[in-house]
């Protein structure tokens, strides 16, 4: 593909405003900047790909901007902002503790910290994956953290907060980043697709968002992968084929047949799934998720736990209307038992078939 820029890089947020799904954090940071109440050390915790490093960079740019907007965003026009935007600012230093975790690495950093910045007010030190520092390195760093020079601000980022020693924790202002929801990822992907003139079915974006498991970076790289594979017109089918995801239509059909007590058709659908090369264990855990999703649709409050959007949501709701809760609970229990016995079973196919037959007979008993 010509001039294809990786979306994760191209659509990296460059202002607090554009950070997805971390409004309370960006709000607090903006307020701190506005009221000039900056701490010397911040700890950004949370799963991977949710915007920790991105926020750290935006923060570094904003506190060095000489011409903040009324909304406390960087102006993107002053010398400092321009330097930041072209990655040539000397006010930001990034250290990846995953690969630079020795005492020497930290010494080099702390030597640097003493030197005041040539331009701008603050030198920001971002230490990514800070939990990877060796304990000796942690101790060497602690001294600097206890008495930081006026111009130095540390932003420590970690996916594993529990591994950070209490003496570090107590010296940092802590921010917990949320996992990003499927709906928020889908909305952002829609925006990226539109900006790239890529036409994509919303059900497909939903699958990408689910696969990304809360990480925007992963969602964007999956999106790129599919664009490079399928071009600028992407269907739901393209997405599931590319990601090797079982079409949720199978599950809708199965539940319909369960409710009709149609054992023959149920077994044929399962056979079809296996013939498409899908793994039995994935299938059975997928069935459990599907039953769970229908169950949450039966209640006006829990329906918000359903992480799908658009047309598919209506399909879940429709199936929830015809399946009663007793059936769903019993079916879930059978699917769950099957899931647990799967690994030790000698005849995995039969194990699943038996579970499916039992589920297909559930409503029979009650007639
Ligand atoms: Zn500026």
TrEMBL record:
<dbReference type="InterPro" id="IPR003593">
    <property type="entry name" value="AAA+_ATPase"/>
</dbReference>
<dbReference type="Pfam" id="PF13177">
    <property type="entry name" value="DNA_pol3_delta2"/>
</dbReference>
<keyword id="KW-0479">Metal-binding</keyword>
<dbReference type="InterPro" id="IPR001270">
    <property type="entry name" value="ClpA/B"/>
</dbReference>
<comment type="subunit">
    <text>DNA polymerase III contains a core (composed of alpha, epsilon and theta chains) that associates with a tau subunit. This core dimerizes to form the POLIII' complex. PolIII' associates with the gamma complex (composed of gamma, delta, delta', psi and chi chains) and with the beta chain to form the complete DNA polymerase III complex.</text>
</comment>
<dbReference type="Pfam" id="PF12169">
    <property type="entry name" value="DNA_pol3_gamma3"/>
</dbReference>
<dbReference type="InterPro" id="IPR012763">
    <property type="entry name" value="DNA_pol_III_sug/sutau_N"/>
</dbReference>
<dbReference type="InterPro" id="IPR022754">
    <property type="entry name" value="DNA_pol_III_gamma-3"/>
</dbReference>
<dbReference type="InterPro" id="IPR045085">
    <property type="entry name" value="HLD_clamp_pol_III_gamma_tau"/>
</dbReference>
<dbReference type="GO" id="GO:0003677">
    <property type="term" value="F:DNA binding"/>
</dbReference>
<dbReference type="GO" id="GO:0005524">
    <property type="term" value="F:ATP binding"/>
</dbReference>
<keyword id="KW-0067">ATP-binding</keyword>
<dbReference type="InterPro" id="IPR005790">
    <property type="entry name" value="DNA_polIII_delta"/>
</dbReference>
<dbReference type="GO" id="GO:0006261">
    <property type="term" value="P:DNA-templated DNA replication"/>
</dbReference>
<keyword id="KW-0239">DNA-directed DNA polymerase</keyword>
<comment type="similarity">
    <text>Belongs to the DnaX/STICHEL family.</text>
</comment>
<dbReference type="GO" id="GO:0003887">
    <property type="term" value="F:DNA-directed DNA polymerase activity"/>
</dbReference>
<dbReference type="InterPro" id="IPR050238">
    <property type="entry name" value="DNA_Rep/Repair_Clamp_Loader"/>
</dbReference>
<dbReference type="InterPro" id="IPR027417">
    <property type="entry name" value="P-loop_NTPase"/>
</dbReference>
<dbReference type="Pfam" id="PF22608">
    <property type="entry name" value="DNAX_ATPase_lid"/>
</dbReference>
<dbReference type="GO" id="GO:0009360">
    <property type="term" value="C:DNA polymerase III complex"/>
</dbReference>
<keyword id="KW-0808">Transferase</keyword>
<keyword id="KW-0862">Zinc</keyword>
<feature type="domain" description="AAA+ ATPase">
    <location>
        <begin position="38"/>
        <end position="181"/>
    </location>
</feature>
<keyword id="KW-0548">Nucleotidyltransferase</keyword>
<dbReference type="GO" id="GO:0046872">
    <property type="term" value="F:metal ion binding"/>
</dbReference>
<protein>
    <recommendedName>
        <fullName>DNA polymerase III subunit gamma/tau</fullName>
        <ecNumber>2.7.7.7</ecNumber>
    </recommendedName>
</protein>
<dbReference type="InterPro" id="IPR008921">
    <property type="entry name" value="DNA_pol3_clamp-load_cplx_C"/>
</dbReference>
<keyword id="KW-0235">DNA replication</keyword>
<comment type="function">
    <text>DNA polymerase III is a complex, multichain enzyme responsible for most of the replicative synthesis in bacteria. This DNA polymerase also exhibits 3' to 5' exonuclease activity.</text>
</comment>
<keyword id="KW-0547">Nucleotide-binding</keyword>
